[in-house]
Amino acid sequence: MSRPRLRLLHETNPQKYFPALYLLAERGAVELVGAHRYSVAKEWLRAGLIDKTPVAQRTKNALADLWFRLTAGRAAGEVIVIGFAPWDWRLLVYRHLARRNRILYHTSWHDWRAGQTPRQPWPGVFRAAMMRRWRAFLHDPNVRTIAVTPAVQASLAREMGVAATVVPHAVPEVFFAAGAARAAGRPEAAPGLRLLFVGELSRKKGLLTLLEMMPRLAARGVSLTVVGDGPLAAEVARAGAGVRALGRISDRAELARIMAGHDVLVLPSQRSEGWEELFGIVIIEALAAGMAVLCSDHIGPRGILAPAGGAGLFDQEDHAGFEAEIARLAQDRAALDSLRAAQAPLAESYSAISVAEQWRAEIERD
């Protein structure tokens, strides 16, 4: 029996967003025939500015992605996993792939009401036409929709009339390995509480809230390590008071090692127009690496932590409560261990091994 021929198409980095599919390929369950970025010029720039990808590598990627765009009509008999933002105009470029292939459309967007998606088509006639094309695409008999969370699944059913299957994002094995090594080593508790922030250094991620708390928390022996880059990088560099900046870290093994050396991931995100914290893959990575998590009660973190009774969730306006909990955990190691024990089991269902089997069922489904 021949293996399914699998192709990936994502805006930025297929390997980052589909580690479970790469695992299937490594195990020989599928033949990975291509992995492409559908945004060619924009991704060439983004990869240089954000990921710091060497110019030779991103140019090679861009040329390969452009070649696939120009020759995509040749693809036939494949299973193609596509990760497009809702209403993205580039659907017009790749829509024809559904004629001769099976498409698994993958989305993490939780609110498909018109006007609520992050990328809105141009107004007027073009907007109506684009939305019609998207609806037709989602209802094409050769297209099945994969939702990252149940909230995404419910919105697709309600707004688009689409029955989606839930397959979550997967966490690479390096994070679980780091967590296992941490547990096996059982080092003596380090003095103080070690907080970690990972993500875009911006207001919407709640970083200013954290920096404002840190002088008071530092007096209680709390430290904060910040991983990431963004518009508030200068504020982080000037923070002092127990704050250490590591910059952006793209290597997942290095990030896993850093997580395993900290106690609590903090993510006090703040809603802005058209945005709130969605899946929050960094939350699962932190849990897998043996950390506890404190975060805002947004749709993504809520979906992850709800099975543990919502432990670690805070109203985004409850800055005082968030700070008080950090101070409590700094003084009460048993409370920290209890929070970690309640949250830790949640990571297992997001392991690449577990998610790979869910993807395999969808790929092999007639």
Radius of gyration: 21 Å
How is the largest sheet built, in terms of strand order?
Answer: 2-1-3-4-5-6
How much helical structure, as a percent, in the residues?
Answer: 40-55%
Question: Helix tally?
Answer: 16
Strand content: 15-25%
**Helix-strand topology string:** EHHEHHEHEHEHEHEHEHEHEHEHEHHH
Low-confidence stretches: none
> What is the count of β-strands?
12
The coarse overall form would be globular
Q: What is the end-to-end distance?
A: 15 Å
Described by strand count, sense and barrel closure, the largest sheet is: 6 strands, parallel
Describe the structure.
Helices cover 43% and strands 16% of the residues. The protein contains 16 helices and 12 strands. The protein is globular, with a radius of gyration of 21 Å. The model has no long low-confidence stretch (mean pLDDT 91). Strands 2-1-3-4-5-6 form a 6-stranded parallel β-sheet. Strands 9-8-7-10-11-12 form a 6-stranded parallel β-sheet, sandwiched between helices. With 366 residues, the chain is of the alpha/beta class.
